[in-house]
Amino acid sequence: MHKNKKVILLILGLLSAIGPFSIDMYLPAFETISKDFNTSIDRVQLSLTAFFVGIAIGQIIYGPLLDRFGRKKPLIIGLFIYITTSILCVFTRDIESLIALRFLQALGSCAGMVASRAMVQDYYEPQEAARTFSLLMLVVAISPILAPSAGAFLMEHLDWHYIFITLASLGVLIIIGTIFFLPESYKGNPDFSLLPPAIIRQYWSVFINRTFISYCLIGSIAAAGLYAYLAGSSFIIQELYGLSKKEYGLIFAFVASALIIATQLNRQFLKRWSMSEISRIANCGQALVGIAMLVTVWTHTLNLQVLIALVFGYLLCQGFIFPNTSAMALAPFKQTAGSASALLGCLQMGLGAVSSGIVSLFHNGTEVPMLLVMCSCACIALLLHLFAVPPRQSTSEILEQTF
Questions:
Q1: Per-10-residue mean pLDDT for the chain, 403 residues long?
Q2: Rounded to 5 degrees, what are φ and ψ at 159?
Q3: Topology of domain 5-180+194-400, per CATH?
Q4: What is the 3-state secondary structure (H, E, C) of 61-91?
Q5: In what residue span(s) does the Major facilitator superfamily (MFS) profile domain sit (predicted)?
Q6: Residue (of 317, 326, 187, 220) closest to 259 by Cα position
Q7: End-to-end CA, the chain
Q8: Do 338 and 63 form a contact (C-beta atoms < 8 A)?
Q9: Contacts of 121 (CB under 8 A, 6+ apart)
């Protein structure tokens, strides 16, 4: 590992957080944007879905590029795309253009997400990688705390256009740090073919690895519940419960703090338990919380306080699931960490796009669509963990498992 370890971890954390920050910061502006563009909330929610789709597709593109040309060159190109499209979002005047630009903005931001995961695999062995993912998750978890609050502050004093000005400025800071302070972790393989048949074969070899597909699907489906919350929370808290943008930002920050608590506890738990054991218990907890959400709806006991408590518990479990399933999914890959990271991210964001799209599609003016999707994702992830992987797995077993 390089001498400037803390600086490298900070930059990797910012690269991991650029996508989540871009998602969360404009959530308080949904209502205002819908009024400015004379459209409905569910149409504005589609701009969030477009972002998820862009991240899913973009990661598939960046994976082979990171393995062929090294980590930094494709990363810098992606950051440049992100900065450019963030600026263009400021000047958009209709919802269709915003949806298209958010898709392109996602294509740029996902370079940081793919590259940061690949670099962790370059630097660390699996168990240490899980601890490092927990550290990166700390930075990622801070973004849902800072981003909506910052977005709400800008909305109170300026307008929603300044949200994208802020995102563009953040992109500039990150690209400067990447160019001058982030060492190249992998020089690339000039023999790695970028022809479509070769790329498909490479992705297929990753996909059929039993460890990868099992833990990738478990983590991705569980995370899809989080994206359903991102899609529906703005309407529910601001419109249904009548809170202000500032109050929404504060609530969002509180529930997101669960991710920080969990990811830091995870680093300590890894000293006693395996990644598989921790994530399995967290899957059980998340499914129970999801079921409790639906029970409160059916028994008419759901109110704002209960909703906040349940979402806090849901995200607390997610903070244990994400770092462990990510580390286990990527553990078998070193030379092709870029492609493996890209496929992992594609499936995560692809399922996130599906879940957020379902929330928008079945929008009916109640909490039910969001809570039903969150519960379904948690329960499906738990079933996969119970039936697709052994109860206990060592690191060597994780590395050896293939179809």
A1: 70 85 85 88 85 85 87 93 95 92 93 84 68 69 73 85 93 93 82 86 88 91 89 85 83 84 84 87 95 94 93 93 85 75 82 86 86 95 84 50 45
A2: -155, 180
A3: Growth Hormone; Chain: A; (1.20.1250)
A4: HHHHHHHHHCCHHHHHHHHHHHHHHHHHHHC
A5: 8-393
A6: 317
A7: 33
A8: yes
A9: 129, 330, 333, 334, 337, 340, 341
CB 181 within 8 A of CB 4: yes
Contacts of 331-334 spanning 24+ positions with Cβ under 8 A: 331/126, 331/129, 331/211, 331/395, 331/398, 331/399, 332/209, 332/211, 332/212, 332/398, 332/399, 332/401, 332/402, 333/121, 333/206, 333/209, 333/212, 334/121, 334/122
The answer to whether the beta carbons of residues 17 and 140 sit under 8 Å apart is: yes
Residue 198: count other Cβ atoms within 10 Å of its Cβ.
12
Residue 180's contacts (CB-CB under 8 Å, 6 or more residues apart) are: none
Quote the CA–CA distance of 242 and 272 in Å, as a whole number.
45
Query: What is the distance between the alpha carbons of residues 45 and 226, in angstroms, rounded to a whole number?
Result: 15
Please write the tens of the pLDDT for every residue from 358-380: 988 888 888 899 999 999 999 99
Contact 278/323 with Cβ under 8 angstroms? no
- Give CA torsion, residues 82, 83, 88, 91, to 10 deg: 130
- Is the Cβ–Cβ distance between 377 and 228 less than 8 Å? yes
